[in-house]
From TrEMBL:
Residues 15-49 form a coiled coil. This is UPF0335 protein KIP89_18660. The keyword Coiled coil applies. It comes from the Bacteria. Keywords: Coiled coil. Belongs to the UPF0335 family. Residues 18-89 form the GapR-like DNA-binding domain. The keyword Repeat does not apply.
Length: 92
């Protein structure tokens, strides 16, 4: 709609098309939000199942976070953490 000058009103057909397009976007986003909610509930259930079998959920979340990083990024972060821990006398 940015191609239409501000001083010219939309034709009824163009306005109808824009209305339907807007409605379509909103409905698609609503469906995706519902899917996202369902997936979040499924993930929560998997964490609960893992916890029920004795796994540490906090550790699982940390592993997931680490796996999202690329190898170079992860190595750099680990080196910085090691350096800081060494500076604080936390490593032997």
């Amino acid at each position: 709609m940015s191609d239409i000058p501000n001083d010219q009103p939309l034709s009824d057909a163009a306005a109808g098309f824009a209305k339907e397009q807007l409605k379509s976007f909103i409905e698609r986003i609503e469906r995706l939000e519902e899917e996202k909610k369902t997936i979040a509930e499924d993930i929560k259930d998997v964490f609960a199942e893992a916890k029920g079998t004795g796994f540490d959920v906090k550790a699982l979340r940390e592993i997931l976070k680490i796996r999202k990083q690329d190898a170079d990024q992860r190595a750099e972060h680990e080196a910085i953490v090691d350096l800081y821990m060494q500076a604080l006398g936390m490593l032997s």
